[in-house]
Design a protein that fits this description.
There is one protein chain. This protein has a 9-stranded mixed sheet, sandwiched between helices. The chain contains 15 helices and 26 strands. The protein has about 550 residues and is α/β, with parallel strands linked by helices. It has 2 domains: about 25-355, 3-Layer(aba) Sandwich (Rossmann fold), CATH 3.40.50; about 445-544, GMP Synthetase, Chain A, domain 3.
């Protein structure tokens, strides 16, 4: 590895972690199920599951897959559901069978689902009953031979009302039935190593069709170890309570909220529908979390809700943010209400996901995504592939035990995704300060060029969101006769606010140089977002 100049800022953080501390994620989580058997593992819809119950139910599901479905090590199994109790039970059953979990967004369109099932070669899908109409549209065009349907109350002590399963899926098996049948068989233990594939994690597909990042057991074992040493105060064995509203099918919640916190015996409160803000706030009130993870848009929505002030935040030790830039104004508002700032990190599906994180000794917003995690090397490269100096911007290229082996069956994409010496090209532009803290400047492709000057939307949005009356905003480049491109800002007003275009532009002039100031401000009711709450600038460009 190169010099890793950030290591001098580590303090008590070790320079490296043991990526082989556990032979597999399965071994890591099985140890937790033994150690914390009597503790509550998950809360969902007012019902709870202990670690021992999760152990038993997932073993039953594993046995069902092995004996009834014929699942073998390495088979791909798609999982398409929101944050229901059945998600962790299904996942543990799948990985105990040595199979590969293919995480699917339950809000996918038929076209997106068909592509992912066929690209991954999934023969089995575990699907939320509410998503079965989408599956029914395309299942005949895929290799799927076994459909297992999930209701909101599955794996919980009491059943709950559920959407009906689409009638076109006549041969499907209810998850509850699979658990009952599986209980009649013995699970066959499967030998796993760190090199075995754990997940196919499909990227958002911002360029063409989405690709499956091939993540191994070792990738995830490494990343849990890396995260734990960055924030030891927030991974206390048997003491943590985490609220999970970001989706488990996304790598951020899957690695941090589920795998990491399950491994330390946390109690995890699952939120199936965070858009129902009243119910979401009620869960936070009941949980009194020690840890909360979110993306900026989620934090922003919560800070707008009056109920957030009624939560007892006295136990909160970590509020973590990722997925997209955390806006300073949002973090300040969050801190004013909860007493904790939002500790930002950076990662991607391809890096399992955490690359950098603001460590425990940082006690205020750093304006960066923190230090690279241990055992990780980062080069910032210019367009000619040369490493740039401290303070200069370059493409973030990452090497470490958490980095994927490549995209699933995509040799050409892999050749382009890695440098000749094996660094993964993230497509993000960043810069290091003297201490080694990494600041994300922006996505390469989102950069706007005004009169030859580079303008990064994150910069503009951070300033504009501090304007009174602005709830959230996003900017894109639009063609301009004089300057080549100009900055166009889309703004959502706060409820009752009357802020004008002139006021937003005047505010921006006070905070940034003239070429960065938006030339056009357009007010909209909402910004287009992905399922994880990332603002989709590409959709704004199409209407700009």
């Amino acid at each position: 590895m190169a010099s890793r100049h950030w290591v001098k800022s580590y303090g008590s953080i070790p320079a490296d972690v043991d990526a082989d501390r556990y032979s597999s994620v399965t071994a890591l989580l099985e140890e937790a199920m033994q150690r914390y058997a009597d503790k509550v593992a998950f809360q969902s819809f007012g019902q709870s599951l202990t670690y021992a119950q999760v152990d038993k139910l997932s073993a039953d599901f594993c046995a069902y897959l092995q004996h009834r479905v014929g699942v073998k090590k390495g088979d791909r199994i798609a999982v398409m559901m929101p944050n229901l109790a059945a998600f962790p039970v299904a996942m543990l059953g799948i990985i105990r069978a040595g199979a590969v979990q293919v995480n699917v967004n339950p809000l996918y369109t038929p076209r997106e689902l068909e592509h992912q099932l066929n690209d991954s070669g999934s023969k089995v899908i575990v699907v939320f009953s509410g998503s079965t109409p989408t599956l029914a549209e395309v299942v005949g065009h895929t290799g799927v031979t076994s459909v297992i349907t999930v209701n909101p109350g599955d794996a919980l002590p009491k059943a709950l009302p559920s959407p009906a399963v689409d009638a076109r899926l006549s041969g499907s098996v209810p998850f509850a039935q699979a658990l009952t049948e599986g209980a009649g068989f013995s699970r066959v233990p499967v030998a796993l190593t760190g090199a075995d594939t754990l997940f196919l994690q499909y990227t958002g597909g911002t360029t063409g069709l989405s690709k499956g990042a091939t993540l191994s057991h070792r990738n995830l074992v490494a990343n849990t170890e890396q995260f734990k040493v960055m924030m030891p105060e927030a991974v206390l064995p048997g003491q943590e309570v985490v609220v999970t509203a970001i989706p488990l099918y996304h790598i951020f919640a899957l690695m941090v909220n589920f795998i990491t916190y399950f491994s330390v015996g946390a109690e995890n409160w699952l939120v199936a529908n965070p858009r129902d803000m009243d119910a979401f706030i009620a869960v936070i009130k009941a949980a009194r979390p020690t840890v909360f993870m979110g993306v900026n848009t989620l934090y922003n929505g919560l800070t707008m809700h009056p109920g957030l002030k009624e939560v007892d935040w006295s136990r909160l030790r970590l509020a973590g943010g990722g997925g997209a830039a955390v806006v300073g104004a949002t973090s300040e508002l969050w801190k004013a209400i909860t007493g904790n700032f939002i500790r930002e990190g950076y990662g991607l599906s391809e890096t399992a996901p955490v690359v950098s994180f603001n460590p425990a000794f940082i006690n205020e917003v750093s304006g960066t995504t923190g230090l690279p995690v241990p055992s990780t090397d980062i080069q910032l490269l210019d367009d000619d592939g040369r490493e740039v100096g401290v303070g200069e911007a370059g493409e973030i290229c990452v090497k470490g035990p958490q980095v994927m082996s490549g995209y699933w069956e995509k040799p050409e994409a892999n050749a382009a995704a890695f440098t000749a010496d094996g660094y993964f090209r993230t497509g993000d532009v960043g810069q290091f300060d003297e201490r080694g803290f990494l600041k994300i400047v922006d996505r390469k492709k989102d950069m706007v060029i005004v009169s030859g000057f580079n303008v990064y939307p994150n910069d503009v949005e951070a300033v504009a969101s501090g304007c009174a009356g602005v709830a959230e905003c996003a900017c894109v480049g639009v063609p301009d006769e004089k300057t080549g491109e100009a900055v166009k800002l889309f703004v959502v007003r706060m409820p009752g606010a009357t802020v004008t275009e002139a006021e937003v532009i005047a505010h921006c002039r006070t905070g940034m140089t003239s070429y960065k100031v938006p030339k056009i401000v357009r007010f909209v009711d909402a910004l287009p977002k992905s399922s994880v709450g990332k603002i989709l600038r590409r959709e704004l460009r199409s209407v700009a």
